[in-house]
Every structure is written in C-alpha cells, then in structure tokens.
Specification:
heterodimer, A: 896 residues, mainly alpha, Multidrug efflux transporter AcrB transmembrane fold, four-stranded antiparallel β-sheet, 12 strands, B: 252 residues, alpha+beta, outer membrane lipoprotein receptor (LolB), chain A, 13-stranded antiparallel β-sheet, 17% helix, 46% strand, globular
Chain lengths: 896, 252
C-alpha cells in the first residue's frame, strides 16, 4: 500500500496507539466498566407478546382482554386415581388462593349454585326433558327417568349424541362418580350418598379428563403473563414450588405444569443457562482455532479482548435503550463473537504481514488500518446496515434485534479499532524490552497458496463455474420458493421434551378440548347466550364458557315457575318408596344396556368424547374386546347378584332417597340465577375485574390449535358466528406472518443498503461483484435447508438479512486485496486469495463457531436460527472462493 | 290486446303440455330405474368407511342379505370386534328397524322418527339404506338429459309421496344405457344435504352393480364410503334371517 494513500484517521490511531498505549487502554477500560455495570441490569424477557407489532389490533385486543379478565396462564395438571387427585386438589386450592399475586384459582365448579337453580338454568328443550326425567324423586325413579331419557334421545340417535357431546360426556363423568358411590355403599355401606346424588344431578364438580386420570386446576395471576414481569414469572415459580412440595408428600399423584407461565419459565431456564454455556464453548473454540492459526497462545488473547469489550459495550447500550433482552436479542453475544472476531483477525493478520515485510510499528499499524482496516470497516458497516435494515420491522422483537445487532457491530468495530492497536503495540514493546522480536504467524507473508490455486482455477474457467452456479442456484431458488414449508406450530420451536409443552398436546387429547381459549367479549348477556348456543354447534369448538350458563333468561322465569311448582308438589306427594331390590337392579342393568348402545353409536359416528367415558363405566375395552369386571357397572351387577350386597340395598337406597328428596326440590326451586347471586368463582372467571357490564365467552377449541390448519378451521368457524375474536395461538400466527413480512422487507432493504455501500466504498460498480457470491451462498444455504428437511420459522427467517450482511464481507475483502495488488489478473487473483483467503477462511470458521453454537440451544427455533446462519456463512465462503474469481474474469479487463 | 291474450294462452298451454309430458317421461324413467336396480335377493360382504368431520376414519365390515326385492334386509357386522355380531334388520321397505347388540344380547326396535337419522354413525340414514319401491315412494319429473363422467344420463327430480321418505326432494342422475343411478342429491327444506355417488360398476350374475357408494354429508362435512367386497344374486337367503327372533342367533 502506498504511504500517501493512508487516510488521516488511520495514521492518527496508529500514532496514538504507539505513543499513548496505556492511557488509551485505561480510558477504554473505564468505559467498559461502566457498560458492564449497566449490562448487569438487563432482564431476560421471553414473552412472545414482546415480539408482536405493538399496535397490531390483535395484540392490543389481547392485552385489553387479559388486563380486564385475567388469563388462566398457570395450569396445574394432577394425575392419579380420581379420589386421590381430588383430595390433593382440595388441599392445594386454598393455599394457592392465598398466594400473593393470584387473582383466581379455578378448581371445583360451583355445584351448590347449580343445585339451587338447576331447573331455572336450563334451556326450554332441556327443561322439559328434566321435568320428565326427575318426576320421581327416588333412586329407582331417577334411574328410570334417566334410562327413559337416554332411550328417547340417544340410544338410537347419534345425531343427538353429536349435538350434545360435551354435555353428555361431562354428565357421564358425574354419573360415574354417582355409580361409584353407590357401589361403595353396597359393598361397604360407608359411602357418602349425598355426594353421589350431587354428582348425579349436577355432574362432576372437578375438571376431570375423559379417562378420569387427570385433573386440572387453572390459576389466573393478577399480573398478566404478557407483561413477563418479574412478578408474573416469580408467581409461576412459587406455584411450581408450593405445589411441588405438597406433591412430594403425595406419591399417589403426579403433578405437572403447563400454560403460558410455566412454558415461559421453562424457556427462561433452557435459554438462560444455555446462553452462558454456549458463549463459553464458543470462546474456547474460537481461542483454540486462533491459537492454532497464529501458532501462539498469547496472540489470540489480543484478538479476543477487543471483542469482549465490544460485546460489553453493546449489552450496556441495550440495557440503556431497552432494559431487557428478548428471545432474539438473547443470541446477540454469540452473534457478535462470530462476527467481531473477523474484524480482529483481519487486522492482526495484516499487521503481522506488514511487520513481516519490515515496516516499523506505526507504519505497520497505519497501513493495516488504512488498508485492511478500511475493508473491515466496509464489511462491518454493511453487516451493521443489514441489521439496521431489520429496524423497519413492525414486530418489536425483530426491531430490537435489528437495532441491538447493528449497534453491537458498530460498537465492536469501534472497540476493535481503538483497543487492538495499543494492545499490539504493548505486545511488541514487551518483547522489545526483553530484547526479542515478537514472533509472527508462520504463514503471515505468503498466506495460504491452496486457496489462491482454487481461485485461479475458477478464474480460468468462468463459463463452467458460472453455468454450474446458475443451474445449482436456480434449483435451490426453486426448492426454497416452493418446497420449504413454514413451521407455524409454536410448540415445535420449543425445547423438545418439555413437560409444559407436551401437555399442550396431551390436554386436548385427554379432555376433548384445549386449554388455549379464544376470547369474545360482549356487552349483552343474551347476545352471549345466543353466541354460545351457535358456537357449540361448530365442529372445531370443544366447549364455550359463558356467564349466561349461570343466569336465567328473563323470559323463562314466568314460563318455568308454574311447572316447577307442580313438580315440587308432585315430589312432595310422592310416598317415600320402599325400594324394590329387583326393580333397582333392573334399572341399573337397563342403564348398562343403554350406555353400551350409546357407546357403540358414539364409536361408529366418531363422537369421541362420549364412548371412552362410557367404556370406563362399563369396563369394555375396544382393543382387547374384553370387559373389566372391576369397572363400576359390572361391580354393581355382581353386588346385586351377591347376598351381602343385596342385603345392603335397602339401607343404601334409603340414604340416597333421603338425599334426593332434599336435593331435587331444591334444584326445582323457581328462584332464577342472576348476575347478583353469581358465585365468586364464576364472577372472577367470566366477568371483568373492574365490574363493568361486559361478559366474556371463553371458547375452547376441540383440538390443539397450535397446528395452523386446526387454528384456521377454529378461527373460521368462530369468526363466522361471532366476528372478530382473539386467542393466544392466533397471536403466534400473527407474529409468524409479521416476521415473514419483516424478514422479506429487511432482506430487500439490506440488499439495497449493501449495494449503496459497495458503490460508495469502491467508488464505482467494481464492488457489486461481491453480491454474486453472496447470493449464490444464500441460495445454496436454502437448498441445503430443503435437503435436510428444515422449515422456515419466525426466528430463522431473520437469518436471511443477517446472512446478506455477513456474507458480503468475504467478497469485499477479496476484491479489496485484488484491487490493491499489481500484475496480471490471474496473478492478482491467486495472490489476493492466497493472502486474504486465509483470513476469510479463518473468519468464516470463527463466525460459524459463533453461529454454530446457537444451533446447540435446546430451544428448537433458536437452534434453527444458528443452523441456518452456520450453513449460510459456510456457503458464502465457498461461493466467494469458487464463484467470485469467475465473476471477476467476466467483468474485469486484464490491465496487462 | 286480443293478440296478447291469445299469445299468453298459447304459451301457457304449451307449458302445461310440456310439463305433463315431462312428468310422464319422469315416471317412465323412474320405472326403468326401479326395474334395473331392484333385485329379488342378494347376499354380500361390504365395508363401510366413515370419515368424520375431524378427518378420523373408521372402517366396518358387514355381511348383507336382502330378499323380497329389497323389502327386507339384514346387515350383520363382522369387524371390528367392538361391533362384531351386531345386526340391523329392516323390514317393510325400511319402515321397521331392529338393532341387535351382541355384547349385551339386547334387541331394540327403532322408533319411526329414527329412520331419517344416520345409520350407525354413517352418513347414510336408515331410509337411504332401505331399497324400497321407487315408484311407490316418489313421483318424478324429467329435468333433461346430459353427460356425467362420460356417461349419458337422464336428470330427474324425485319428490317423495306423502308416505314416502322424509326428504324434500332428490335430484337423480341415471344412465340412459343401463338405467342405473349414478348420482343422487338429497335436499331437505334447507337445501342440499347429501350427495351419493355410485361408481365401480361390475356385472355379477348377469346384473350390473355399483361396487362403491360414497355419501357426502355437506352439513357435517363428513362422508361414508360403502364398498362391496363380494355379492351374489343367485342364492336366496334363509327367510328366518329376516325375523327378530333370529337376530341373536349366529348366521349359518
């Protein structure tokens, strides 16, 4: 490099570094300490809402709903036998309700309220069914009424079974409990008849799975989980700890957690710890690579120290601007290790070259900074520009990543340019003091001839190279455009094997509905009632919770009251029966027949929430085609055929009759259910916290809606009925779609900025040649993604503009060196790639180490981001060495 | 003015004549279809695959028997084990239906209103499955002739007689070559409810038979395919099979 062409800033830094190395470093150290202190205040926020566009109507609506009604974001799933699960739930629910930060715990349903107003809460069709079903308030009479009803409605009619599926399934869970209590009474005469009666009339109070092996308790925190505040996360941890400690004392039950709270905590645990481990691993690998390259244990430290300074500055700046890091910016440290080491490598390598060529310290530094340093600067600026291009994003996560990474690259550049020269000077002076010459890397002068030979080969065969690349690139473009699917399922991006994630799939399978709700808020309770009726007819809807379930429609009050008065009279006039054992046995036998017929109807019609519940009662197993004789109905039959069992029938039936004689008239009371007498649990679950006159419908999908096609189906059906609605799963789709748009826009913008910077830096179109290997590398990366079966997702999409920003560096350095050299074109190509090739190979390797370490995150979305970047950087290097020389041959005239 | 009245009268007379002729043609076609589709008796094995709204599939196998030109029929399930041994007996052209459940050894008589409901979870109703006398159950109007899947067909509108099935009307396409139905649309008061497509025609014992029937339920977004595995028309089933008393007995 000509001494006259060295810019003044390069000479200034060189002079300062040679004359005031210690002072320069002390000042930088002070700044770094301040940044380090600031970086310590950063909080990790893994909340997905943070990644959404702030003003997107769905995001705004979601926050509004959650702020008004709360969100059941912590789900405790208890597994075991029914009575063990209930005992455990009864123990933990009061404790959970007492916890600070808990707004509501939904455990048992308000059974007493239902027993007080049961008839008055029924729709007319069901009301008249009940009048017929419960006209005889005795055990035999009620069972006869139920059997008659089953035969009228269900045993020969799968259409009705399908229409009433959830009501039948939940009713059968209550019947199961009632039959169990009856069976326990007949076998030991010590069961709680009233509990059986309550279950028979009002259903199973707890939220049990259809196989009766899992029970859910849902917790609504005061602080919404979307805020991802310390309080919300801390509450999740406290709940997990408290329930976990209690569970340790109850080996008969198994407890696990799901919901957005526990998923968030699991994410934090997996990401937080891994980030530190992966950064350490990346540092060690980079150090070893550098040590091998420089044949020195000391020189790598000099290269890595400025990088550490730059990362600390970047984190400090993030703390000042954002105060937190999100799922994307958490990878920033690793990204900067991969990128920033390139800057130091190019500078150290060139410095060693210049020292090897006999230049004194100041000149060597000035030439290095003014020559390679300018290339580093251009490469760094293009990378930063590509990151800054992401700031066009509407999604906050991408915006923050764009800013943080762009600013991080700039700060690292500054740190390298200011810190590395004085460090190199001090190293030399240390050797000089000892009367020795600082050792240089063995290949410093001649570079790496193999890469030069490869580049020369490509230069001599431009047609072959370009045709092959066009064909390969075209194929890759085609498969990237048409063949790589999009991963919309958020759960598939989470760490594999997390219980909180797996439960999201298991709950819909076991309960016949998901715990992820869609929300609709209305201002008219009758509108809520009408919506609920229509929504429950939609195949994709599992159930709808509405406050209208608990409030009597005004028109029904006058309609029902006289009928209930006569029903109560009829009940009162009914003589207390002396139960005929055979008659009771006949009704139980008939019940078994009817249930079995319903079960077969449901099985054949695919009414899959009904037949498994019945099969548990009858003991029939579809797989083995055998009947478990210990199931409740076979056991009851056995008791009726047993002397001891028959002997207890009168006593047990008397207890049931007494309870029924009390409960049925109570349930037939004509006092309506009103908003004023709602139980607290309903109020907290379905009414706004501020007491305003709004009503929430919680619409539970029938199946897991993390799969996009299921979500689309659910959304469409709900939207057809109720118009706009919100759900957590839908917000993930919004986030994915928005990120896709941001990634596309960011890529185009990054390309535009790169074009401009290249034109500016090379003062003409010469530098645009570097874009061709960049695009080739990016296409090859997409091709390999297709071959390895990878999918696009909302995180790895952002890798595309990032690759554009990083991959351009290789070409910039090669072209820069090519232009500096003299001789024939082929000689310049060979020399440029021999010398700079070694550096770009090394920088690509270190960048790949940084990004490759991201691929080891257990969180699959983040890992895919690392993997895509790893492939991208690798292919950009290969394309630079193989394709760029051919392109140069086409566009550059040989001056000799 | 007089000219206008004359024209209107002539047009109305023409319309009435055309409609009457079309009705007569429709009835004639119905008779031809009845003749082509009615078999004195049959013995066969079929599969029934139900694809539910959620996309789940269930396949059942049953033996089928019919006699008295379809006036009586029996479906005896053989697979899966859950329903093996269960039987559906239809008498009087489907007016009487009994269901026998082997697991509980119980026979149920289905009420009249059940006949229009889905048969054992499928998209066929009991009245769809019964092969009664078309001319007795419907009056037909010829809507025209067209081509369906390369086959020349007549298009009829069949309206149930007062004692006929529960549909509002059917639109039926039958081949002009073999007079067998190719497609039937079932309409109720709300519009199109179901569509039946008959395909895979093969000749067995001199009779051309659809080996595949697919019924799409447009309301539920589900469908049922019934495939014939084997069928024969040359042997009359034992008359005892078509009695309530024989339901609990194994089929010889």
């Amino acid at each position: 490099m000509n001494q006259e062409t060295i810019p003044g800033w390069a000479r200034g830094i060189a002079r300062l570094s040679v004359n005031r190395p210690v002072l320069t470093l002390i000042v930088l150290l002070l700044v770094t300490f301040a940044a380090f202190w600031q970086a310590g205040t950063l909080q990790l926020r893994m909340n997905f809402i943070d990644l959404l566009p702030e003003h997107h109507p769905d995001a705004v609506g979601y926050k509004q709903i959650v702020d008004e009604y709360g969100e059941q974001s912590i789900i405790v799933a208890i597994e075991g036998e029914r009575d063990d699960m209930v005992a455990f739930a009864e123990e933990i629910v009061p404790t959970l309700r007492e916890m600070e930060g808990v707004y509501h715990v939904e455990g048992a349903q308000p059974q007493e309220y239902f027993l007080d107003h049961g008839f008055m809460l029924q729709k007319p069709k069901d009301f008249y069914r009940w009048l017929r079903m419960y006209d005889d308030p005795s055990l035999t009479g009620v069972l006869r009424g139920i059997n008659d009803d089953f035969e009228r409605e269900y045993t020969d009619n799968d259409d009705n079974l399908r229409d009433d599926e959830l009501m039948v399934a939940r009713g059968l869970l209550g019947m199961g409990l009632a039959l169990e209590r009856l069976e326990q009474g007949l076998s030991a005469n010590n069961a709680d008849a009233d509990e059986g009666v309550r279950a028979l009339l009002a259903g199973e109070p707890w939220m049990l799975s259809l196989d009766r092996k899992m029970l859910l308790v849902a917790i609504t925190p005061k602080e919404p989980m979307w805020s991802a505040s310390e309080a919300a996360l801390e509450l999740t941890k406290q709940v997990q700890q408290t329930v976990g400690e209690r569970a340790a004392e109850h080996p008969e039950v198994k407890v696990s957690f799901t919901g957005m709270g526990p998923i968030g905590v699991d994410e934090m645990n997996s990401v937080g710890t891994y980030t530190q481990l992966l950064m350490l691993a990346a540092w060690i690998l980079v150090y070893l690579l550098l040590a091998r390259n420089f044949r020195s244990w000391g020189l790598p430290w000099l290269a890595m120290l400025p990088l550490a300074v730059g990362i600390i500055w970047a984190l400090g700046l993030m703390a000042i601007i954002f105060g937190s890091i999100n799922i994307m910016t958490v990878m920033l440290g690793l990204v900067l290790i991969g990128l920033g080491i390139d800057f130091t490598l190019h500078i150290v390598t060139r410095f060693c070259e210049e020292r090897g060529a006999g230049h004194d310290l100041e000149d060597a530094l000035a030439i290095t900074l003014g020559g390679t340093g300018r290339g580093v600067l251009t490469g760094g600026l293009t990378t930063a520009a590509a990151f800054f291009a992401l700031m066009i994003a509407d999604t906050r996560g991408v915006f923050e990543f764009g800013f943080s990474a762009g600013a991080g690259v700039l700060l690292t550049l500054v740190a390298v340019f200011l810190t590395l020269p004085p460090l190199l000077v001090l190293r030399e002076k240390r050797y000089t003091r000892k009367g020795r010459v600082a050792p240089l890397p063995p290949d410093a002068e001649e570079g790496w001839p193999l890469l030069g030979s490869i580049a020369a080969w490509s230069f001599k065969r431009p047609a072959l190279v370009i045709i092959v690349m066009v064909l390969l690139g075209g194929a890759c473009f085609y498969v990237a455009w048409t063949g790589i699917p999009f991963e919309y399922n958020f759960l598939n991006l989470e760490p594999a094997g997390l219980t909180s994630v797996e439960m999201q799939q298991e709950i819909p399978d076991r309960f016949g509905m998901s715990d992820q709700n869609g929300w609709i808020a209305v201002t008219d309770i009758e509108r809520a009632r009408a919506l609920k009726d229509t929504l429950e007819d939609q195949p994709a809807v599992g159930s709808v919770s509405s406050v209208s379930d608990y409030v009597t429609k005004p028109a029904w009050i006058d309609q029902y009251a006289p009928q209930l008065a006569s029903l109560r009279e009829q009940m009162a006039s009914h003589p207390t029966p002396n139960t005929e054992t055979d008659e009771l046995y006949e009704q139980i036998s008939r019940l078994w027949d009817n249930l079995d017929a319903m079960s077969n109807q449901a099985y054949m019609a695919g009414v899959d929430r009904v037949w498994p519940v019945i099969d548990i009662l009858t003991g029939y197993d579809t797989e083995s085609n055998e009947t478990d004789t210990t199931a409740v109905l076979p056991s009851l039959q056995a008791l009726f055929e047993d002397e001891a069992g028959r002997a207890r029938v009168q006593d047990v039936a008397a207890a049931w009759n007494a309870s029924l004689a009390e409960r049925l008239p109570q349930m037939a009371d004509s006092s309506p259910g009103t908003l004023d007498n709602l139980p607290e649990s309903v109020r907290k679950s379905l009414l706004p916290m501020d007491g305003s006159a709004e009503y929430l419908l919680r619409v539970s999908p029938r199946e897991s809606i993390w799969e996009k096609d299921k979500l689309d189906q659910f959304d469409q059906q709900v939207e057809d009925v109720a118009g706009n609605h919100l759900s957590t799963a839908e917000l993930f789709i919004v986030m994915t779609v928005e990120t896709l748009r941001d990634g596309r826009t960011g890529s185009l913008l990054a390309l535009g900025v790169i074009f401009i910077l290249l034109l500016f830096h090379f003062r003409g179109a010469f530098g645009l040649m570097a874009v061709i290997p960049l695009l080739s590398g990016a296409l090859l990366m997409l091709g390999l993604m297709y071959i390895t079966g990878m999918k696009y997702n909302y995180i790895n999409l952002i890798a595309v503009p990032v690759i554009l920003g990083i991959g351009i560096d290789d070409g910039v350095h090669a072209l820069h060196r090519f232009r500096e050299l003299r001789g024939t074109a082929v000689e310049r190509i060979r020399a440029a790639f021999s010398r700079v090739g070694r550096a770009i190979l090394l920088t690509s390797a270190t960048t790949m180490i940084g990004f490759g370490s991201i691929a080891f995150y257990t969180m699959r979305g983040m890992a895919s981001f690392g993997m895509v970047l790893f492939l991208g950087v690798g292919f950009c290097f290969i394309a630079t060495v193989l394709v760029l020389p051919a392109v140069v041959r086409v566009f550059v005239r040989d001056r000799n | 003015m007089k000219l206008r009245i004359l024209c209107t009268t002539v047009f109305a007379l023409l319309m009435i004549t055309c409609t009457t002729l079309a009705d007569e043609a429709g009835q004639q076609w119905l008779s031809k279809i009845d003749d082509a589709e009615s078999v004195p008796w049959s013995i066969g094995t079929m599969t029934q695959t139900i694809t539910t709204t959620s996309g789940d599939e269930r396949t059942f196998t049953f033996e089928s028997f019919s006699a008295d030109s379809g006036d009586v029929s029996l479906m005896a399930y053989t697979d899966p084990p859950r329903v093996a041994g269960d039987k559906i007996l239809m008498l009087d052209g489907g007016d009487q239906v009994w269901y026998y459940m082997k697991r509980r050894d119980v026979t149920r008589h289905y009420a009249g209103h059940t006949l229009k409901q889905s048969a054992m979870g499928s998209d066929f109703s009991y009245e769809d499955l019964s092969t009664g006398d078309l001319q007795e159950d419907y009056t037909a109007e010829l809507l025209g002739e067209e081509t369906l899947e390369g086959e020349p067909v007549v298009k009829l509108k069949a309206t149930p007689t007062p004692d006929g099935p529960s549909y509002d009307h059917l639109i039926l396409w039958a081949s002009t070559n073999d007079h067998l139905s190719r497609k039937i649309e079932y309409y109720d008061e709300e519009g199109l409810e179901k569509t039946l497509i008959l395909s895979d025609f093969r000749t067995v014992d001199g009779r051309k038979t659809a080996f595949s029937m697919r019924m799409d339920n447009h309301r539920r977004n589900s469908y049922t395919v019934m495939n014939t595995i084997e069928i024969r028309y040359n042997e009359e089933p034992n008359a005892r099979l078509f009695t309530k008393g024989a339901l609990a007995e194994p089929i010889e």
